[in-house]
Amino acid sequence: MQAPAPDRPWWLYLLECEGGAYYAGVALDVEARFYQHLFGRGAKFTRAWPPLRVLAARAYPSKGEALRAELCLKALPRARKPAFFEPPG
């Protein structure tokens, strides 16, 4: 596996899945990761609840920052998760 370029951002993304469930994850390429989930090559959760669409995504300068943001997102109640991606203000 090739190491990512230092200027390539990591993305936190939120998927809407069958049954109205949400799935959050991090990836270098959200579109490619979505298709991995869609074709059963992603997380176990998305094999049970296939994704319907990408609801939102936000870039972070490092994998660590994206993973920390993912923890914050996952700690929110379901109803507040889409708002996590809205600009502050």
TrEMBL record:
PANTHER family on file: UPF0213 PROTEIN YHBQ (PTHR34477:SF1)
Source species of the chain: Ramlibacter aquaticus
Family stated for the protein in its record: Belongs to the UPF0213 family.
Lineage: Bacteria, Pseudomonadati, Pseudomonadota, Betaproteobacteria, Burkholderiales
Domain GIY-YIG positions: 8-83
Protein name: GIY-YIG nuclease family protein
Transmembrane segment boundaries: none
Cited InterPro entries: GIY-YIG_endonuc, GIY-YIG_endonuc_sf, UPF0213_domain
